[in-house]
Amino acid sequence: MAIHYYCRHCSKSIGKLSDWEADDQMLGFNQLTDEDRKEMIECDSQGHIQVKVICEDCERTLQENPDYHAFESFIH
Ligand SMILES: [Zn+2]
Questions:
Q1: Which residues lie near ion ligand 1 (Cβ < 5 Å)?
Q2: Is residue 3 pLDDT above 60, yes or no?
Q3: How many CB atoms lie within 10 A of CB 51?
Q4: What is the model's pLDDT at position 10?
Q5: Mean of the per-residue pLDDT values of the chain
Q6: Extents of the domains making up the chain
Q7: What's this model's pTM, rounded to 2 decimal places?
Q8: Ligand 1 centroid vs 63 CA: distance in angstroms?
């Protein structure tokens, strides 16, 4: 099992953790509500965990253009 982080807006891969590097507590998943976990965390067909976050580029874009927050995906 591995944990992949990727950007929810541009789908850029941000990082990867193998299972021994990460547990729920360390990642802070235990502080999320069930709804947040469902929204952010997906398991693929191989049992790998995919976590949707925001990359630095998109974060900067969002800071400069707060209106884009209304759109789930604004980069194509
Ligand atoms: Zn991005």
A1: 7, 9-10, 12, 55, 58
A2: yes
A3: 19
A4: 93
A5: 81
A6: 2-70
A7: 0.66
A8: 13
Measured in angstroms, how far is the CA atom of residue 73 from the centroid of ligand 1?
9
Closest CA to 5 of 21, 49, 15, 25: 15
Report how far apart, in Å, the C-alpha atoms of 58 and of each of 16, 39, 67, 75 are.
19, 18, 13, 9
Q: What is the whole-number distance in angstroms between the Cα of residue 43 and the centre of ligand 1?
A: 20
DSSP-derived pairing of the beta strands 49-53 and 41-43 = antiparallel
- Kindly give the distance from the C-alpha atom of residue 44 to the centroid of ligand 1, in angstroms, as a whole number: 20
Distance from residue 56's CA to the centre of ligand 1 (Å)? 7
How many other CB atoms are there within 10 angstroms of residue 57's CB atom? 13
Q: Which two tokens stand for residue 31?
A: 């502080």
- Please write the tens of the pLDDT for every residue from 20-49: 665 665 667 778 888 988 888 998 888 888
Which tokens belong to 68? 């884009």
